[in-house]
Structures are given as C-alpha cells and as structure tokens.
Amino acid sequence: MERRESYISTTDTEASFVTPLATPSQLPQTSSQLDINEDTPRSTRDNRSERSGAATPTVHRSASIVTEDTRRPQTAISTAPEVAKETAALSVGNPSQKAIDAASSTEKDASLTVAPENEDGQASKVTTLRGDSSHASETEVLTSEKEAVKSIKGEEAHTEPELIAPESEEVADNDGEDDVVYPGGLTLGLITLGLLLATFVVALDNTIIATAIPQITTVFNSLDDVGWYGSSYLLCTTSLQPSFGKIYSFVNVKYTYLIAVAIFEVGSIVCALAKNSPMLIVGRAIAGAGAAGIFSGGMTIIGFTVPLRKRAIYIALLSSMFGIASVVGPLIGGVFTDAPNLTWRWCFWINLPIGGVAMLSVFLFFKNPVRKQSKLTFIQKIAEMDLLGAAVLISAIVCLLLALQWGGTTYAWSDSHVWGCLLGFGLLITAFIALQFWRGERATIPPRIMKQRTVAAGCVFSAFLAMAIYTTIYFLPFYFQAVKGTSAEGSGIRTIPYLVSNTLASIVVGGIITWTGHYVPFLWAGSAIFAAGCGVLYSLQVDDGPAKWIGYQLLPGIGAGACIQIPFISVQVVLNSKDMPVGNALTIFFNSLGGALSISIAQNLFSNTLLQKLQEQIPGILPLEIIAAGATHVREATPPQYLDIVLGAYNSAVTKAFILPIAVSCLAFFCSLTYEWKTIKGKNLLTGGAA
After folding, report:
1. This model's pTM is above 0.85
2. Which range of residues forms the domain containing residue 209?
3. Which of 38, 50, 195, 326 lies 20 to 30 Å from 186 when distance is taken between CA atoms?
4. 349 with 273: CB under 8 angstroms?
5. Residue among 426, 446, 432 nearest 245 (CA)
6. How far is CA 664 from CA 478, 528, 669, 670, in A?
7. Residues 486 and 621 in one domain
C-alpha cells in the first residue's frame, strides 16, 4: 500500500503544531491508546492509565490517533483555547463512547475533530467531539497538508478552489474568523435603508450637477473651470478607494462609514456656500474624499449584516441606486436650476437631509462586528495602514487623471504637461507595485489578494464593464440633445428605457442568484448581451423613431444590469471577512478607474470625428463655431442649409464613440470566462471559508 501521511493540529493561544500520524502498518492494533501531555493533571493521567492498562508516555502538544479501521488513515484537527494543551489520542472511525468520554474529560471549550481520508488523501468528513456535549457532529469539509502547514506558520487559511467539496459546490456563510451575528427583520431593513440612501446621495451628486453647471459658470464666470468641477471629485474618489478598503479592514467599520458620510456632507455644504469657483472646486474634492468610503463601506456592511446566500439581492439594490440617480438626477437638477425660488445651490443642499437620515439609521441599528484585528493597538493599526503606499498610489492616480483631463482639450497630447503626467504615472505606479510586494500582508493591496483568480478577474471585468457603461450613459444624451433636439431634461427622460431596464435586470438577477446560488452564468450572459446591445446602439440614425431608440436601449440595459453587481458578489464569496473590505474597495477602484479612462477615450473619438466631418463639408471657421455652441444649441448656431450635415456629423460622432463600449464589453465577456465556478449557497465549513 502507498504510504500516506495525515496530519493532526493541536492549538493553543501561543502556538500551533502539526505532526504526521502513523500509517496503518505502524499503528498499534489495540482499540484505543492514550498519549497525555505532561501538563495533564495527575489524576487524569492515572485514570486514563488504568483504563488503557498501559504506562503513559509523555508528549509535548501533540497527539496520536489510532484507528479502528486501520486500512484508512485519519486526519484530525484539534481546536481549543489555552486548555488545549491537554491533548489525547482517541479511537476514531465511527465515534465510540470511549472517544466521547475522553473528549468530555477535557476542559469545556476544548474540541477534537477527526476526519477519515478519502481516496485522494483528503478529509471528506469531519467528526467533531466537544467537551461540553455528549454527541458528535459531522460536516463535509476538505483539509489538506497545505492548510496544516499554514497553521504551523501562523498564516490564515484562505479560501481556495480546492477547499470546496466537489459534490456540494457550496461555500461558507462565515469564515469562522469573526463572530458575526446577522440582524434580521426591521433592524436589517433600517440598516439597508441607510445604506441605500447614502449610496443614492453619492450617485445623485454625480448626475445632478450636470444640469447645474451652465448656471454655475454664468454666476462665477468660470467657463474654463468646468472640467475641474468633475475632475476634483473624481481624483479624490478614485485615488482614496484602496486606502478606505485597508481602513475598513482594521478600524471600526461603523464609525469609519459614518465619518465618510460626514466628510461627504461637509463637502456638499462647502459647495452650497461657495462664493467663487475655487471654493466650489475645493468642496467637490472634499465630497469626493467622503464618497470614496461610502460605496465600499456599504458593501462591507452588507457583508457583516447579510448571510452570503442572501447578499446578491442586497448588492443589486445598492448598485441600482446609480441607475435610479441617473434618471432622477437631471430632472431634479433642472427643477432646482429653473425654479424662481430655488437655485443651483440646492443641488448640494439636498444631500444634507438624505445623508443625515442615512447616518442616523446606520448609527442606531448597525452593530460593529467583533474582529481579531479590532484588538490591535492604535500604533499597530497605523503600522497596518501602509501610509507610504497610499501616498504613492494617490500621486499616481492624480497624474493619470490629470493627463486624461488635459489631453486633447486643454493641451495637445504631445504637450509636456500631458506626457509629463503620463511619465509620472508610470514611475509612481511601478514604485507602488514594488512597495506592495515589499510590504506583503501590510500593503494597501496585498499581492496575495490580487493573485486570487476571481478577485483579479473581477477587477479587470469591472473596469471593462464600467468603461462601456459610462460611455453609453454619457453619450446617449448627446444623441438626444444634438441629433433629436431635446433639452437636457428631455434627454434624461429619453434615457429612462436604458436606466430602468438596467435597474430592473440588476434586481431580478440578484433575486435569482439568491434563489439558485449561481452567479457565473449571469456574468457570461450579461456581458454577451451587453456587447450585442452596444452593437445595436452603434446603428442609431438621425431619423430613427421612438420605437427604435427605445428598443435599442433595452438590450444593453438588460445586459449591464445582469452582470454589474456580480464582481462585488464574487469578491465576498472568495475572500474571508478580514480581506473582504480590501476586495470591495479594489473592485470599486477599478470600476471608477475604468469610468475615468472611458470618458477621456470616448471624448477624443467623439470630438475628432465631429470636427473631421464638419470640416469636410462646411467651409471656413463655421465648424468651430458650431462645436462651441454645444449640443443643446446646435440648431440655433447652424445655418439652415447646413443643418442636415451638422446633424449627420453629430450622429456619426456619437456612434463612433460607441465603438469603445463594443470593444471593451467584448473584452469583459472573455474576462468572465476566467471566473472560478462558485456558488453563494452553502453552510459554515469547519476550516473556514468566505465571509
């Protein structure tokens, strides 16, 4: 028979040791044998010696297991607090009364778990004997030599593909690391309401300002600063997200989230009270810093308040806030801007009551989870933050976004301002990556997490999907305003089919995932449908009627909604509770970065195509004057004899921009094929699992 070694791990608060068990040929043929730690009380040793009829040898924090069925070696895992210094060898196979009695003779909190190995040398069934019970419990689990070795080194076991029993396809609701008690009923509903309101107010802030900018530039005479109203917000939001992920891992989740919302509210107040353009830009930057911690914090709180098998629907609800805000944002902004008794400042004042209700709900009803890392001292937590890495990453993202903001608009792409920023980004991101490998587990983005297959695939998928979604949402209003001649509010109404189908698909798919447990098929189908839908949008024409432009929006809306929340779900499946905040923040970071990249790339495609088409058919400087008039005033700025040419040029420019979402949504589909096949339905596994 081929020699196989099984492992027994006995732990206390100080150390963890693993020793190979005897093979069948080396095992004594007695039905039971007792090896007692030298720290065991004499009375216990005497009693057990009399029972076994043999002398009691001495071992140090280790135990031997003797099987009744010597043809199958056993795997044993013993877990206990300090009292686990007492270890014993028990007769295993089918748990006998002797084994139960022996387990009961140890301290109350001690436990011994034994598992017969399957044909592959891995434990497929675990029998747990606890000192405070008279029965054994069994659960399906997989334990390997790799996990045993990790316990020697003091490393945490992280969920790997092989930790899932093939026949069950199930993962854990809890990793066993943190003591999580999930709320229910009204409490869960009020927590969810708070998270939805906070996410909604962040999403609303992104869309409501679009209709207010024309009036803001008139009041402050700041047309040249228009780009900074969005860029200052985006710079802070994108660059701070990974840092917030690390903060949520080690600092009080509840108060970190409340502080993030408070920072966002302070930024909104500064914007509402702005006396000039620089003050408004500073306010937008402050609001962006707070927004960086709100969405990732919401995902983290969901992880601690909702069992894994139910999280899909809650994540879908949270994600749907962006679609809802995209519909109502321009409408509310238009009302505030045009109403005689209100001004554009109410676009920021509205954030205060909504954010206040969100903060109150989370403060009163969310109970902060008790985690191992919560016991670290303040100095230890600071040491875990990787402040240097965060500073380098923030600098790198600022350089990249400045280059994208300036390139092709403020400066030519060949200008030193642009390529200098790009060069700075390259150097800084290289330094950041080196720092992450050097810092290891204390890095802002631990390499171990990024190497996890599903996390890496999810981040890339999220970036590609965001590039496609942001481009379609941004340029569909251009089609309606320039080509169809609608107002800003009218274009918002005409994009409702896209945004409503997106939101409904997200919620429906979230419910189906909660019911079935499977999310990977929706990732494949959603990205494929979205790619096809982007191809349909590319075929939009000047004279298309409502039937076409409504129908054309449904396909990409359904496709995007079906898969938009899945990267966030998958991260919570494959990572434990300690790593979950970092995984959430990483996914959101790549999502935001993809959106920032897409707008810059698509804007260049749009602008270059529009200028080229107009200059080919209209002489003189008139093309530049038409472009300067903007999409909403194109008809007033265009001579009647050139109107059809101008409308055709705008249509060509918009559809040319849609080439980008076609390409990246196809890349997202191929990326989805690399996902691990996982399911969110399962039970707590003894070895731990996903959070």
Report:
1. no
2. 181-368
3. 326
4. no
5. 446
6. 21, 11, 9, 10
7. yes
